[in-house]
Amino acid sequence: MAEQQPLLFTVCAEVQSAHKAAFNDWYNQVHVPEIMACPGFLRSVRYEEVDADGRYRAMYELSGLEALESDEFGQARGCCHARP
User: Fold this and answer.
1) Average pLDDT of span 37-62
2) Cβ-Cβ contacts under 8 Å for 56 (sequence gap 6 or more)
3) Which of 1, 49, 62, 80 has the fewest CB atoms within 10 Å around its CB?
4) pLDDT value at 27 more than 50
5) Backbone dihedral angles phi then psi of residue 63, each to the nearest 5 degrees
6) CA distance linking residue 17 with residue 8, whole number of Å
7) What mean pLDDT value characterizes the chain?
8) By three-state DSSP, how is residue 24 classified?
9) What does the pLDDT read at residue 80?
10) CA-to-CA distance for 32 and 1, rounded, in angstroms?
């Protein structure tokens, strides 16, 4: 069986200027550690668009699609998802 190639999972977010500081604090202190603790998440990087204030693009290298199907990922997906 051929070895599975890593995948790139990309997420975009738009944040109002008034909320950027809180978003960045949450993202760096809470979200990234939660996501990177999920099985199958290998690396992450985030960029802010130069010509669009408050627009971010995050990219996560995954070991495979199963990373997106784990219970851990389902619980840690983001600020806009309800927690059980």
Assistant:
1) 93
2) 12, 13, 14, 15, 46, 47, 48, 49
3) 1
4) yes
5) -70, -25
6) 28
7) 87
8) helix
9) 52
10) 33
